[in-house]
Specification:
The chain is α+β, with helices and mostly antiparallel strands and about 350 residues long. The protein folds into 2 domains: about 110 residues, 2-Layer Sandwich (Beta-Lactamase); about 210 residues, Orthogonal Bundle (Hypothetical protein af1432). The strands form 2 sheets. A 7-stranded antiparallel sheet has the order 2-1-7-6-5-3-4. It has a two-stranded parallel ribbon with strand order 8-9. A hairpin with a 5-residue loop joins strand 5 and strand 6. Helix 5 crosses helix 12. About 30% of the residues are buried.
Length: about 350
């Protein structure tokens, strides 16, 4: 008798489950939603905000946490505050796309999603809802990168001597940063994966402020007068102003401080030693290396050996002594970058 009752209960709940599944599938088919779509994570939940169904993309995106079916793992950014999904009023979710849903991974990085939530319908006196998650994590960064690329191109039109210089600077700066991370991370704890990736993008923007410098100064083949040089130095401040609201602190620091010198004789503020941000100290060395190797309208290209000699002489004067020693260890890779990323107009070597 007891076994028969258990079988009856089993079939009852199986029937309820199948009816609920049919109800959900019917709505999904009417809305032309592909539940197994690889495009977007999909979550179906009831009026108690208990998750009742997810798709494969949801499972792969949120990895282990989907197993608990506890929405506390997910929270929504509202203005500058975070509210857990379980504390969010469903009516707020039904206002259409515009709620930014943040998921913090085990690596402490955030994934951002724009949510579209629809009322699935009512079944067995319970309301059901479906949320589609549109990944917007990298949208702002992609937009900034594209804008910065356009600005770099614009600055090239102002200063034709730059050639491939700006792209080599990205490579040099990333090379030094990666070497430090692999071999001297204790001495430079600020260098991590993000630092390496970012400096490999924004080092090229170091001279973006030259957009605001008159052409007759930028293209003058002779030595600048004191007045002209004073105007030229303003490109550091101009660049920091351009980048401050758009490209982040590292890009701003590089633009503003890459002409500072280790001994405090640089510009615009005469900072010295570790007062100068590390990113700017790295780019300063890379910038001078490449400027020495390049043929300019006022100078020929210097050889690798002569360039190394000049940089070594300026250890502790212009350049961070520790970075200079690291440069010497990777100098051949610097030379490879220069040889692979130049055009004939940039090279006319003298010893």
């Amino acid at each position: 008798m007891q076994e028969a009752l258990l079988i009856l209960i089993y079939f009852y709940y199986t029937l309820i489950y199948m009816e609920k599944k049919d109800f959900i599938n019917d709505f999904i088919s009417k809305q032309n939603i592909k539940l197994d779509s690889e495009l977007n994570p999909i979550m179906i939940f009831d009026e108690r905000k208990k998750i009742v169904l997810i798709n494969n993309k949801f499972r792969s995106t949120f990895k282990e946490n989907y197993k608990s079916c506890k929405p506390d793992y997910f929270f929504i950014k509202e203005k500058e505050e975070y509210r857990y999904f379980s504390d969010f009023d469903i009516s707020d979710l039904l206002t259409g796309r515009g709620n930014i849903f943040i998921y913090r991974t085990e690596k402490e990085t955030d994934l951002a999603f724009d949510i579209l939530t629809l009322h699935l319908g009512t079944w067995n006196n319970n309301d059901y809802y479906i949320s589609l998650f549109f990944n917007v994590s990298n949208f702002r960064e992609r937009l900034i990168d594209e804008t910065m690329h356009a600005l770099v191109k614009a600055s090239q039109m102002k200063d034709n001597d730059t050639g491939e210089h700006i792209y080599r600077l990205n490579e040099y700066s990333q090379l030094i940063s990666q070497y430090i991370f692999d071999n001297h991370s204790i001495d430079f704890p600020e260098i991590d994966d993000y630092f390496i990736e970012r400096i490999g993008k924004v080092a090229a923007m170091h001279d973006i402020g030259k957009i605001g410098i008159p052409d007759y100064i930028l293209t003058k083949p002779d030595k600048l007068s004191d007045e002209e040089f004073a105007v030229m130095k303003e490109h550091t401040i101009n660049g920091a102003f351009i980048l401050s609201e758009l490209a982040g602190k590292m890009a701003r620091d590089i633009a503003l401080f890459h002409h500072e010198k280790w001994n405090g004789t640089g510009y615009p503020y005469g900072l010295k030693e570790i007062q100068i941000p590390l990113s700017a100290r790295i780019v300063a060395l890379a910038d001078v290396y490449d400027a020495l190797r390049m043929k300019r309208c006022y100078k020929p290209s210097f050889s690798q050996e002569k360039t190394i000699s000049i940089i070594t002489e300026n250890k502790g004067v212009h350049f961070d002594p520790d970075l200079t020693e690291i440069f010497l260890k990777v100098s051949e890779q610097f030379n490879d970058i220069f040889q692979n990323l130049n055009d004939e107009s940039e090279v006319e070597t003298i010893d």
